[in-house]
Design a protein that fits this description.
Blueprint (H helix, E strand, L loop, with lengths): L1 E6 L3 H6 L7 E7 L5 H9 L3 E4 H15 L12 E3 L7 E3 L1
Parallel strand pairs: 1-2, 2-3
Antiparallel strand pairs: 4-5
Length: 92
């Protein structure tokens, strides 16, 4: 399984070529949110398309679960990092 990280200018090219790249299973888009069109093109070829900011929130949530700071069923609406806290996330 391959994950590709790209900016908004390259995602359409990657999605147009997805049928020729069967090992690509995830595309992480840096920039504006993933559009419905991009999501649907990805779904057509079984490629998960996600925005980088959404990935960050998911990773922070996973970190909090692994470290026993929140329950697995909890939701995070927004995460902030404060200076001088050794990069511990603060939930708002």
């Amino acid at each position: 399984m391959v994950t590709v990280v790209c900016d908004a200018t390259k995602i359409s090219v990657l999605l147009d070529q997805a049928s020729q790249c069967p090992t690509v299973k995830n595309i992480v888009k840096i920039g504006p949110p993933v559009s419905d069109e991009e999501k649907s093109k990805g779904d057509k070829f079984n490629v998960n398309v996600i925005n980088f900011s959404e990935l960050e929130v998911r990773l922070i949530h996973l970190y909090l679960i692994i470290n026993g700071l929140v329950d697995a069923g909890s939701e995070i609406n927004c995460c902030l990092f404060a200076k001088n806290t050794k990069n511990l996330p603060l939930m708002t």
